[in-house]
Write a structure and sequence with these properties.
The protein is mainly β. The protein contains 2 helices and 8 strands, in the order ββαββββββα. A hairpin with a 5-residue loop joins β1 and β2. The longest helix is centred in the first third of the chain and has 10 residues.
Length: about 130
């Protein structure tokens, strides 16, 4: 049996991708959502750090390669349909989002009288201009 046979258990979409959710160990905060291809998932396991597939750049993206905000992977899980990966991660410097926030899910829908609006719920921890040069 191949050393990477476990990758065949994942149900890849028509583009060879699987959605991946990064959840923080301890707090259980959902930090971000991205996609992985086979190579990204394999490298994630080999490195013990999150590697994604960037659909916009069409290449592998080792989380933190520019920012230093690496995600150390503690656990990988697959959902009941085998088509979503959940990673329990330790987020270096506490910043997962390119906006400099802890989580990419920093906007919350709230009712304001009779209307609804999106409200920012998390502060910027680090100016994105200083993260990405």
């Amino acid at each position: 049996m191949s050393a990477h046979q476990w990758l065949n258990h994942v149900k890849w979409d028509e583009n060879g991708l699987v959605p991946a959710i990064a959840q923080e160990v301890g707090s259980n905060d959902v930090l971000m959502f991205a996609y992985m291809n086979r190579e990204a998932l394999q490298k994630t396991v080999e490195l013990g750090e999150a590697v994604y597939w960037s659909r916009s750049r069409r290449k592998l993206w080792h989380k933190g390669e520019e920012s230093g905000h690496v995600q150390k992977v503690h656990e990988l899980r697959l959902d009941c349909d085998q088509d979503v990966v959940l990673m329990k991660v330790e987020q270096r410097e506490g910043i997962a989002c390119h906006t400099g926030r802890h989580s990419c899910f920093f906007e919350k829908l709230e009712q304001d009288g009779t209307s609804w609006r999106w409200v920012t719920t998390e502060p910027v921890l680090k100016d994105p201009e200083s993260i990405y040069k």
